[in-house]
């Protein structure tokens, strides 16, 4: 569909010439109804564009009473923006002509470039080259253009009528033009103000990262909503998220592509299992991005973030009016892992005093129908919750019924927020979707910074997404990066015996063992270790030893060692005669325990990530793994391990002893320190890692590294 990151030059030009042009040229201007050029011109006229408009059409002298010039060559030098409403075949030559006339920016609607085959890709690359050489900002090709709501400038063929300049609010960046338009309609229907909407299309010469950077710097854009199918400059995007956080701006993302195939990796299980979508998600969420699962959820998250005085964080308290709703909310909260602080008659005296005696204090709270006869109860309840530091977010799931009923319930809500001015979000959701609620009531709620939702479930899901992002901000470790000086001499696949020698000094536990280059050394090593031993073939070219007969278990005595040595070398030679073994690793046979896989990958675009999950067949069949950032605290790592599908096995399932989860977290933390200190490590696989009962630690039975 598009040009890859490494072949698209970064935009270092003035995007203002595209989004805030003082002069525009419409190449392919037309007066024919429905033609793209006619629609673009109609948008400019409808929205009272104050700048110069140059119409280009060789077959017309005037269009709608405006003068028309025959070609780009007839333009004055230095026009800010050209909009190309022309067929694909004429685009490349037109871009060359625009560059010669020093036009600052261009928008290309036409499709059929990178998504159309080799010729289209070649033309798209040439567009990027011309743009870089000429210092042009080019949006597209294969896009729907942009809209500048701040200055009422519609740069699209989609019918656009901006009633008044926007005071500022949400910026939209989307690779899909259709979805950018859909999202804009959705947000406007919620009375949210927009700043810019940009569809980047094929990103020949500018991409989502460029427009995100522009909107971070724009003081009127307070929230950025994105729809992205592929990040072409991941490292740059992650760095921009640091800038967004510093500027106090939230980024919300919808990213189609969960089902995309994982990248293949020749060396480790970890590389194959840390697929594109999972890796992207782990990295962007860690960078502070809030991910939405659906388009509807993207709008819901954006509404809360744009409208509330503060983002949801900490515990959520739910006000309801039904015992059944209370039970449903508890079910949903458990599914979402939404924290509901425990409130009761004893620990919430202010709330107790606000309620009738027959209404027990709880969370969720069932106010019953008492509010119809005592509407002030809503005010008193909110006032008590505003003062409770355990409550980070307040959600009211209210039965609306009809205008008369909602007219009784809503005024005390708005009065409480208006008079008491809480520093925590208050969110309103109806229980009975479809109940008629007069639009003026919804607008009054929104005017007080209270988002309105037609259902409770949608609101709670959006609250959870935002509160989870807040939780991640407090989970960064202060542990220093770790270095391994001896790693400097290693390149490519590092075999097990060398990997263990490098990793052992970092505190990573391995079985007692010795490397042996000869059979006599193997016999001596086995005698020194004592007891049954395992023999494992060692060579950089032999990543998965068991496939080649490179593992022998429970060996006791010199004769067993000699026999295993001869058989192993013969089996490996039959498997692949080109593999020359360095020797073997002799290790003590360990006690049985629960097997995990712990590994790491330094993705060339996204950077380092750690994978932890259950080993054996479950790793690949069930995909029961978590992707972790290398900078996480021990507490955060333990919490992530608790989200594994089989996490119950770690905590004493069916009478078995609780396992040493702290030791697992310590191991992962050490790997994180290593990744941050040694960026040359491309992949690391500890598989399996055997976990023993609490207090008895962990042992990594195998280790494999890939070093740049």
Descriptive report:
The chain is flat and about 100 Å long. The two termini are about 30 Å apart. Helix content is about 35%, strand content about 20%. It is built from 22 helices and 30 strands. It is of the alpha/beta class and about 700 residues long. The N terminus is likely disordered. The longest helix is centred in the middle third of the chain and has 18 residues. Strands 3-4-2-1-5-6-7 form a 7-stranded mixed sheet, with helices on both faces. The protein has a 7-stranded mixed sheet with strand order 9-8-11-10-12-13-14, sandwiched between helices. It has 4 domains: about 250 residues, NAD(P)-binding Rossmann-like Domain (Rossmann fold, 3-Layer(aba) Sandwich); about 160 residues, 3-Layer(aba) Sandwich (Rossmann fold); about 80 residues, 2-Layer Sandwich (Dna Ligase, domain 1), CATH 3.30.1490.20; about 110 residues, ATP-grasp fold, B domain (D-amino Acid Aminotransferase, Chain A, domain 1), CATH 3.30.470.
Descriptive labels:
single chain, Rossmann fold, Dna Ligase, domain 1, 4 domains, 7-stranded mixed beta sheet, 35% helix, 21% strand, disordered N terminus
Write the layout of secondary structure elements.
Layout: H1 16-19, E1 23-27, H2 36-46, E2 52-56, E3 62-63, E4 66-69, E5 81-84, H3 91-100, E6 105-108, H4 118-134, E7 137-139, E8 146-148, E9 153-155, E10 169-174, H5 177-189, E11 194-199, H6 208-217, E12 221-227, H7 234-246, E13 250-254, H8 269-273, H9 276-286, E14 290-292, H10 295-307, E15 315-320, H11 323-336, H12 349-354, E16 365-366, H13 376-386, E17 391-398, H14 403-420, E18 426-430, H15 439-447, E19 452-453, H16 456-472, E20 492-494, H17 496-503, E21 513-516, H18 519-529, E22 533-538, E23 551-555, H19 558-575, E24 583-588, E25 594-603, E26 607-614, H20 617-621, E27 625-628, H21 634-641, H22 661-677, E28 681-691, E29 698-700, E30 704-707
Parallel strand pairs: 1-2, 1-5, 2-4, 5-6, 6-7, 10-11, 10-12, 12-13, 13-14, 15-16, 15-17, 17-18, 18-19
Antiparallel strand pairs: 3-4, 8-9, 8-11, 20-30, 21-24, 22-23, 22-24, 25-26, 25-28, 26-27, 28-29, 28-30
Helix pairs in contact: 3-4, 6-7, 10-16, 11-16, 13-14, 18-19, 21-22
